[in-house]
Write a structure and sequence with these properties.
Helices cover 69% and strands 0% of the residues. By secondary structure, the chain is an all-alpha fold. It has one domain.
Length: 144
């Protein structure tokens, strides 16, 4: 199964956008699946439903950090290279969606009952969000 399909399956099974983007890369980055789901959980819906940076984007940034990030055992890695990868990823996502902000992508306020109702009735989960998840995974695959 392709990573984009796997990500959509994760998303449609009830996990958030950040979790859906991280999950297909756990083997590549050597992270336990349960740990990945837990780490990414708070990033959905633009950081805990605050609708800031899209969870698909933050999930992608987590994957980039796990692949290119510096840690005590990898001190030869330049964090500037990681930052550049993050910026490249975000620029490509913006080319496709004009923004990385969840509120702008969805066009509604998920912190209100009215906004959540609009999200549900307009099927934004299966249109906008699924496309963001697919694009984030596709961009990552091109970068890794």
């Amino acid at each position: 199964m392709e990573r984009t399909d796997a990500a959509v399956d994760v998303f449609e099974s009830g996990f958030n956008c950040a979790q859906a983007v991280v999950a297909p890369f756990v083997e590549k980055v050597g992270l336990a699946e349960q740990t990945a789901y837990r780490i990414a959980c708070g990033f959905g819906a633009g950081l805990g439903r605050r609708q800031k940076t899209c969870g698909a984007v933050t999930g992608g940034i987590m994957v980039l950090g796990m692949v290119y990030g510096r840690d005590p055992d990898r001190t030869d890695i330049d964090k500037e290279k990681t930052y550049q990868k993050v910026n490249d990823f975000m620029r490509e996502f913006e080319k496709r969606h004009a923004t990385t902000e969840c509120r702008e992508l969805l066009g509604c306020d998920l912190t209100t009952e009215e906004g959540r109702k609009h999200y549900t009735e307009s099927h934004l989960h299966s249109t906008v969000c699924v496309e963001c998840v697919k694009d984030a995974v596709t961009i990552l695959e091109g970068m890794l």
